[in-house]
Amino acid sequence: MRYDLIIFDNDGVLVDSEPISNRILAGYLTELGHPTTYEESLRDFMGGSVQRVRDMVREKSGRALPADFETGFHTRVFDAFRRRLQPVPGVEAVLEKLTADGVPYCVGSSGSHERIRVALTKTGLFERFGAERVFSSQDVAWGKPAPDLFLHAAKEMGVAPGRCAVVEDSPLGVRAAVAAGMDVYGFTAMTPAAKLREAGATALFSDMAELPQLVR
After folding, report:
1. Edge-to-edge, what's the strand order for the sheet holding 134-136?
2. Judgement on whether residues 40 and 146 belong to the same structural domain of the protein
3. Where is 197: in which H helix or E strand?
4. Structural domain span for residue 62
5. Do residues 168 and 184 lie in contact, with contact meaning Cβ atoms separated by under 8 Å?
6. How high is the pLDDT of residue 1?
7. For the chain, N or C: smaller number of CB within 10 Å?
8. Signal peptide position in this chain (predicted)?
């Protein structure tokens, strides 16, 4: 079917940020006394909000992260983004194709508005969306894997959930899209295909060049 809206996750789908941010997160948590490997960060936190990091660390260790955790983490991440962040290969061509075909699209990300803006501006993608088509977990009560963010994006864009497709690269995001009643296309660049399939992905793809055909 022809979708009336494509909702893109940001990290790992539009911008190649997951390796950068998860290495920083693992290192920072380890500094704070919560030993974490890069692989563990990807497994536990990829696709989630900073609040999820707080909740999981408290649950695992019984200790809260410091009040200024977000500030310290984002300072490190934004500095790294501004120096070396790149768009996901092929995503610009996908956005151009959707624009040419008259298919609306937006961002639905677990990141803060500031993180999304920094990332999209550095990679030259922000002008393709504009602030009015960027939706963050800050906008809703519950982040992924709850459906709230995707339902909020659909409502703001004036599209019924069943007419939306989501592009995600994490099991958390796939589960959120499924819970929202939306088809979801799992990008396997950073996550094993089996994990996205188990989470409920409608279809899987490993190269952005495949996406326009899938969502046509």
Report:
1. 134-136, 105-109, 5-8, 164-168, 183-187, 203-205
2. no
3. helix 193-199
4. 18-84
5. yes
6. 67
7. N
8. none
Cα separation, 40 vs 61, in Å, equals: 15
- Are 65 and 92 within one domain? no
Q: Determine contact, residues 125/92, Cβ cutoff 8 Å.
A: yes
CATH number of the domain encompassing residue 99: 3.40.50.1000
Q: Going along the chain, which residue ranges are E strands?
A: 5-8, 105-109, 134-136, 164-168, 183-187, 203-205
Encode pLDDT of 61-109 as tens digits.
Answer: 999 999 999 999 999 999 999 999 999 999 999 999 999 999 999 999 9
Q: Taking a C-beta distance cutoff of 8 angstroms, is the pair 119, 15 a contact?
A: yes
Nearest CA to 109 out of 17, 164, 47, 156 is that of 47
Kindly state whether residues 112 and 11 are assigned to the same domain.
yes
What's the domain count of the chain?
A: 2
The label of the residue with tokens 């919560």 reads 34
Whether residues 134 and 183 share a domain: the answer is yes
CATH number of the domain where residue 49 is located: 1.10.150.240
Dihedral, CA atoms, 12, 14, 17, 21, nearest 10 degrees? -70
**pLDDT tens by residue, 52-73:** 999 999 999 999 999 999 999 9
In this structure, the answer to whether residues 145 and 121 fall within a common structural domain is yes
